[in-house]
Amino acid sequence: MPLFGSSFSPKKTPPRKWVSLSNLHFMDRSTREVELGLEYGTPSMNLAGQSLKFENGQWVSESGSFTGDRRELQRLRKRNQQLEEENNLLRLKVDILLDMLSETTAESHLMEKELEELKQHSRRRK
């Protein structure tokens, strides 16, 4: 039996209206960056001894020694182009050889058929 009568049951509180106590949503972006130090700078990373930073949607070398890599990149692109041309030529040669093989096979089958017909015709005469 409870000491003060019935058991304690508080009334349900009505839901609160959402009101932010922060004034961040009233500030524009530049004010927030100045006030709160939200200027992060450009993303950067160090990859295989090469320092890179992200600018205008592309990764750019910070040290400026990227020119050697550009020459290498141009050399690789040229080599890739040569290999693609060689690959296309080889595919063309394979297609031609397959056409020649199918033509020779068809001629061979025709000759075999004619030979069989001649053999049957010579057997009939005997």
Report what the structure shows:
This protein is mainly alpha-helical and 126 residues long. It starts with 28 loop residues before the first helix and ends with a helix. The radius of gyration is 42 Å and the shape is elongated. It is built from two helices and three strands. It folds into two domains: 25-63, no CATH class; 67-125. 53% of the residues lie in helices and 11% in strands. It has a three-stranded antiparallel sheet with strand order 1-2-3, with no helix packed on it.
Count of discrete structural domains: 2
Mean pLDDT: 81
- Count every beta strand, where a strand is a DSSP E run of 2 or more residues: 3
Which strand order spans the largest sheet, edge to edge or round the barrel?
A: 1-2-3
Number of helices: 2
| Oligomeric state of the chains present here | single chain
Using only C-alpha atoms, the radius of gyration works out to 42 Å
What would the principal axes of the Cα set say about the shape? elongated
Uncertain parts: none
- N- and C-termini, Cα separation: 129 Å
Sheet of most strands: 3 strands, antiparallel
> How large a portion of the residues is in β-strands, by DSSP E?
5-15%
Helix % is 40-55%
Order of helices and strands: HEEEH
Organism: Pipra filicauda
Keywords: Coiled coil
Protein name: Protein chibby homolog 1
InterPro entries: Chibby_fam
